[in-house]
C-alpha cells in the first residue's frame, strides 16, 4: 500500500490558509516583498534624445558638421556592451552582433564629412600579395551621451579593450577610406562601406576607419572586446564626434560636459 502522507482535512487547510494570509499582510512582510521587487527589477535609466546644436550644418541622416570646431558629429545608438568585436560602429541593420554602436548615417556622407574636418584618407588594408596594414590620417573619436540628466564624454578607445590584457585600445583609428568597386550585377560603382563596415577593430578593406595594424576578424583570433565597465547601457543614444587627432586632446573617460562637441 502506498502512503501518500498526512493530508490536511478541509478544516485544517482552511486555518493554515488564514495563518499564511495574516503573515503575508504584516508590515514586515510587505516591506520585504517591496524590497525584493525593487532588487529584482531595478529602475531603468532615463535615456535622453540628443538634439543637434543649431550651429551645426546638417550633412545627411544622423550626420552634422560643426563648422566652428571643424568636427564631424554622427548620431548612433549602443547595441552591444559586452563580447568580442569586429566593429566600433556598423550601419544599422547589418552587424550589430559584433559592434558597439549602430547608425543610420549614410557611409559615403560620413566619408565626405571626414574630408570637411581636414582629414585625408590613405588606403584600406591589403591582404595579398602581402599584408599591408591600413593607413591614413589619425582620427580622434569622442563619444558623448546623457543618462538621467547627466552628460558624459569618453574617448572611444576606452570603450574597446584588448581581449587578453583587458586594457583599453592603445592605438588611434586611421582614415583608411574604404574603396570603390564595380558591381557585376548592376554594372555601377559602389562604395564598399555601404555593406556596413564603418569603424572597425578587425581589418576590412571596406572599412572607412580601421586600425593601423594586423587585427583578425576570425572568431578564434579576435583581439578586441567591448568594455562593459565603460560602455553605457544598450539603447543609449550617443553623438560620435570625429576630428584629426592633432586637434583633439583625449578626454578623460566618463567626464561631464556642458558644451556641445
Question: How are the SSEs placed, and which strands pair?
Answer:
Blueprint: H1 10-24, H2 27-40, E1 57-60, E2 63-66, E3 71-78, E4 83-84, E5 87-91, E6 99-103, H3 107-116, E7 121-123, E8 135-136, E9 138-147, E10 150-155, E11 160-162, E12 173-175, E13 180-182, E14 189-191, E15 197-200, E16 209-210, E17 224-226, E18 237-244
Parallel strand pairs: 5-6
Antiparallel strand pairs: 1-2, 2-3, 3-6, 3-18, 4-17, 5-15, 7-8, 9-10, 9-12, 9-18, 11-17, 12-16, 13-14
Quick structural gist:
This protein is α+β, with helices and mostly antiparallel strands and 261 residues long. It has helices at residues 10-24, 27-40, 107-116, and strands at 57-60, 63-66, 71-78, 83-84, 87-91, 99-103, 121-123, 135-136, 138-147, 150-155, 160-162, 173-175, 180-182, 189-191, 197-200, 209-210, 224-226, 237-244. The chain has two domains: 10-40; 57-247, no CATH class.
Task: Describe the structure in your own words.
About 15% of the residues lie in helices and about 30% in strands. With about 260 residues, the chain is of the alpha+beta class. It folds into two domains: about 10-40; about 55-245, no CATH class. Strands 1, 2, 3, 5, 6, 9, 10, 12, 15, 16 and 18 form an eleven-stranded mixed sheet that branches. β9 and β10 (about 150-155) form a beta hairpin. The radius of gyration is 26 Å and the shape is globular.
Mean pLDDT: 82
Major sheet, described briefly?
11 strands, mixed
Total number of helices: 3
Count of spatially separate domains: 2
Helix and strand string, N-terminal first? HHEEEEEEHEEEEEEEEEEEE
Helix/strand/pairing class, anyone? alpha+beta
Shape: globular
